[in-house]
Each structure stands twice: as C-alpha cells, then as structure tokens.
Amino acid sequence: MDRYTELTDTLRQHPRTWLVTGVAGFIGSHLLQRLLELGQSVVGVDDFSTGHRRNLDEVLRVHHDPGTFRLVEGDVRSGRVCARACAGVDFVLHEAALASVPRSIEDPMRTHRVNVDGTLALFLAARDAGVQRVVYASSSAVYGNAERLPLREEDAGETLSPYALTKWMDEEYAALLRRMGGVDAVGLRYFNVFGPRQDPRGAYAAVIPQWTRALLAGEPCRIHGDGMNTRDFVWVGDVAQANLLAATVPLPDDAPRVFNVGGGRRLSLNELYAMLGAAAFREMEWAVPPPCLYGEARPGDILHSQADLSRIHAVLGYTPRADLDVALGELVSATAAALRLAGTA
User: Which CATH number belongs to the domain containing residue 72 in this structure?
Assistant: First the structure.
C-alpha cells in the first residue's frame, strides 16, 4: 500500500478539521472536494475576488453533510478573519493568492499585498491558534531563469516577475517563523496545474482551459512565442494528493519544508496544442481544426520548466497518478458536455 492510500484510509477512520483558504478557487475547491470525500470537517475562507460561488455549489451539491463545511467570507489580509478561521483547526491548506505573472507586472502592489501580507497574516494566526501545520501554495515561478532541467528545489535563477518574488518571500517568511519557534509550514511549488473548474475567461486564464474552450468553439488558439516553450502540467487531483501528504506526513526538524509538485513530464506548447486539438477533433468531428496563431512572447514568462520530483517522492511519498494524455482527453470531453448542456456548443 502506498503512502497516500494509507493516509486516506487513516483520515476516513480518524477525521480531522481543515482550513482551506481560497476555497472557492480552482485548486481550493478541489481540496475541499477531496477532504469532504474523505469525511473531513472543513472551514473555508474566500472573499470571492477571484473565486466563484459556483465552484462551491458544485462541490457541496454532492459532498456536503451538515456540519462538515463552514464558510468564512473575508480577506486573508485581515488578522481578524484569519484568527476566526484558524480556531479549532488541525491543518491549514493556504491557496488564497493572486496567481498571475501578467497581473503582477501590471499591478505589483496588489499582488504583494495579497500574496505576502495575506500569507504572513495567516501564518501568524495559525501560530497563535496552535495549528499543527500550514501547507501553502508556492510556485515554480520562483526558479526564474534557472537553466538546468529538471528543476530541483535547491536550484535558483533570477526572478522574472513580481508574482515570483512574492512566492519566494512566502517561503522565506515560513522558514523564518519556524526558526523563531512559530508555525510549522510546508511550501509546495506548483508547476502548471490543470483540471475541471479552471476558469477559461479573462486575460489571465491558464492556457489549457483557454485553448479547450477555443478549440471546441472552432476558434483560433493563440501562442505567445514560437510554441517551443515547455511546461510540466500536473492534474489537480495530484495537487490535492501533495497537499494532504504535506500536511500530515511526520517531518523531523532537519527535513526539507519546500517541495516541487509536478506531473513528471515536460511538454512543449506546440505538443499541448496538438494533444488538445486531437481530443477536440474526436468531440466535434471537424474536417479542419481551428488554426493556431503565434505572437510575441510575454514578459516574465519562463522558457522551459520541469519538476524534479525526487525530493517529494522520497520525503512525502508523492507519485503523480494521472496520465497526461488521458487526463487531457477527459477534460476536453467534460468541457464539451458542459457546453452542450449550457447550449453553447
């Protein structure tokens, strides 16, 4: 039995109380879903600035027993909101953030306030409430222009965006507070997460939901650059696995507290387009797929990215379970079904 299976069995037998910040967001709602599937009690925090109530509605329609979920509506930058949310909680999964490189370049002050001030407020509230461990979302963006692949946690390059810098600062605050006898916090450097409920709309949407919607609508997809940039795409269910392991696996004092979370495979944007296009073709049966349009590369974008997963596998027992080809196909099919149901495809 692998460590994650063993953990889920233990949690079903001995439920705990969890706090998920950014609970109405893409990743946060999947953490809520997994915890409720395992019979846990969950407190959620969201101010709905980027999250959606429909994400909560979708989860709670299927996975909600009375008393297992409580929503605290508010901003994590508020110490009062954080203190209220942390009361009586065993573990914290901190997802609340402004997660966009372009947005951070346009508005670095807001990104800093949410990603750094909000995270520090939560760390301090968790410390004061006696929370056992905080798991917080860091990012592969902290690697900047590091060239050696796959990227190991000790690698470092020059940061390329205010967003990347805020995530690096979160890691430094976590390490400092732990040295000062504060909260035990584990950072997860997410690579390119994808899955259901990822918002395809807006200027800052992730590439997979954007392209999936465009392909199903027969509209052109846009690539910033020549499409040779590579990314490590990780299924959101594997991100949930990493969070639960990071929260509960016993860690000695000298164990690392920062881990990569990836899918274990590097894919160019051109390859991704071809895979999504093939899946959309099976759904829509076009004679000719929509075109792909190339444009200027965006400032702050990393050229190549791939996670070295040896540390998280050795320390936490994490192994990606999703097959990328299968997961992308299932996502395209599910999106097509949702669009047909809504009458837009």
Answer: 3.40.50.720
